[in-house]
Design a protein that fits this description.
Elements (H helix, E strand, L loop, with lengths): L1 H17 L3 E6 L4 E4 L1 H7 L3 H4 L4 H4 L5 H7 L3 E8 L2 E12 L2 E11 L2 H29 L13 H14 L5 E4 L6 H10 L8 E5 L5 H9 E2 L12 E2 L1 H4 L4 E5 L6 H13 L1 E2 L8 E2 L3 E6 L3 H6 L5 H7 L2 E4 L10 H16 L5 E2 L1 H9 L5 H15 L5 E2 L6 H4 L3 H7 L3 H19 L4 H8 L3 H10 L4
Parallel strand pairs: 6-13, 6-14, 7-10, 10-13, 15-16
Antiparallel strand pairs: 1-2, 1-5, 3-4, 4-5, 8-9, 11-12
Length: 457
């Protein structure tokens, strides 16, 4: 037994002497009773020189006896020992409420050690801040209702409905053509809600292959399938817990995934692929589509029960052609933002160019307007004004004023209108001629003939 105790004591002495910090312990008489080798090295003394001595005889400028008298700890003090600045700590030892001694620790050999550690901490903090910011950019909403530009009655009414939706925890379904700003409204709804401090997670249902969508939304456990990441993966719904998830292009979601999403909406739980436990969720769904979901239901491409679960609060964003009066304020806003972004100083649009902008059909909506303004800013060689010639040819040739001034024969006017209509529809269908022919109610052969006739690219 004695051998074991002796062995343990030797081990403790070994550890005590090999710690980085210099340590000294005094008793209630301020005499040194315990000391380790690093401390002896700092004060340039041997153990025999210090044990049993009053601490003031051992250490220059010591305050251990003062801490003993006051009963107050002293943390992070600078003390000069043998001509060198040391960072020290003094902690009072109590037993049954009575002071029985003080521990002194030299925490850093010198101030430079502290600076080195401080620099490392700052570096780590900077790195942590960077990753936090990157995570916020992925998870957080960037916009609010102030970022939705417009003064028309249509957009004011839409913002009002969206603000009402933000005050609830109900699911929201946003309708709108491509480029109208569905994602912008989704951000704003989350930012104005009581979930604003929670995550905002975006998922484009049309951009993720159907075979990967389930693992993206719900995650998976390690070994769930061939190629599964070690440790598994958290799904987008788990990331969004406590916040909102934005399901863009919900109309593109495959039917088998619609069934799984419906279960999430009904039961407020998910299961990772390959997992056995249910994970409870507190997530508000904001969905968006440019499709007519009621028509999709009739075609058997969208579940009716899911539609009614999503369509609690309905927001329909008007296309730009239905709020032409907003073009002035939108152009002013875009000029200011895009000029700074492009490093140019373009401050206005000529009256003639503005007239043509207001007479254009805008199949790509606000996004197309943004692209047109950015293109014009980059094309301007001199001056600070966008002129008609800086606009795309389809806008220059699409104005009613342009047609009347250019043509006098009714046949020419009708042909020009027909050409512009076909061009608009092809833009809207993203070049899909079958869809364009169906929208124009003509055969594909007739459409191809007109494309060739008018030399439409």
């Amino acid at each position: 037994m004695d051998n074991i105790l002796t062995s343990k004591e030797k081990l403790l002495d070994k550890i005590f002497d090999n710690v980085y910090e210099g340590i000294v312990v005094i008793n209630r008489e301020a005499k040194v009773v315990l000391v380790n080798q690093p401390f002896l090295d700092y004060v340039h003394k041997t153990r025999e020189d210090v044990i049993g001595k009053h601490v003031t005889e051992v250490v220059d400028n010591t305050r251990l006896h003062i801490a003993l008298a006051t009963g107050k700890d002293e943390i992070g003090d600078i003390q000069i020992i043998n001509g060198e600045k040391k960072i020290v700590m003094r902690r009072v030892i109590y037993n049954d409420g009575k002071i029985i001694g003080v521990i002194g620790r030299i925490m850093f050999k010198n101030v430079q050690d502290l600076k080195t550690l401080s620099d490392k901490v700052l570096e780590m903090q900077s790195e942590l801040d960077y990753y936090k910011k990157a995570l916020r950019e992925v998870r957080d909403a960037k916009y609010n209702f102030d970022n939705i530009i417009g003064m028309s009655s249509e957009i004011i009414r839409t913002k009002y409905m969206a603000e009402k939706a933000a005050l609830t925890n109900s699911n929201v379904l946003i309708y709108g053509e491509s480029g109208t700003g569905k994602e912008l409204f989704a951000h704003a709804i989350h930012t104005a809600s009581n979930r604003q401090t929670g995550p905002f997670v975006k998922v484009n249902c049309g951009a993720i292959p159907s075979e990967l969508l389930e693992s993206e939304l719900f995650g998976y456990e390690e070994g769930a399938f061939t190629g599964a990441k070690r440790g598994g993966k958290i799904g987008k719904f788990e990331y969004a817990n406590g916040g909102s998830i934005f399901l863009d292009e919900i109309g593109e979601m495959p039917l088998h995934m619609q069934v799984k999403l419906l279960r999430v909406l009904q039961e407020k739980v998910i299961e990772r692929i390959g997992g056995l436990k249910s994970i409870e969720l507190d997530v508000r769904i904001i969905a968006a589509t440019n499709k007519d979901l009621e028509k999709q239901i009739k075609l058997g491409k969208f579940r009716e029960d899911l539609y009614y679960r999503l369509n609690v609060m309905n927001i329909t964003i008007p296309p730009l052609r239905d709020r032409i009066e907003d073009i002035d304020v939108l152009v002013t806003y875009l000029l200011d933002r895009l000029s700074a972004q492009c490093g140019r100083h373009i401050v206005k649009v000529s009256k003639e160019a503005m007239k043509y902008l207001k007479e254009y059909y805008w199949p790509g909506n606000v996004r197309e307007l943004e692209n047109v303004i950015e293109r014009a800013i980059n094309l301007i060689e001199t001056g600070n004004e966008i002129k008609l010639e800086d606009l795309p040819i389809q806008i220059q040739n699409n104005s009613h004023t342009y047609i009347v001034n250019r043509y006098t024969k009714l046949k020419d006017i009708l042909e020009d209108i027909e050409k512009k209509t076909i061009m608009d529809i092809l833009v809207k269908t993203k070049g899909n001629k079958s869809k364009a022919a169906k929208m124009l109610d003509v055969s594909r052969t007739s459409l191809y003939e007109k494309i060739w006739k008018y030399d439409i690219e």
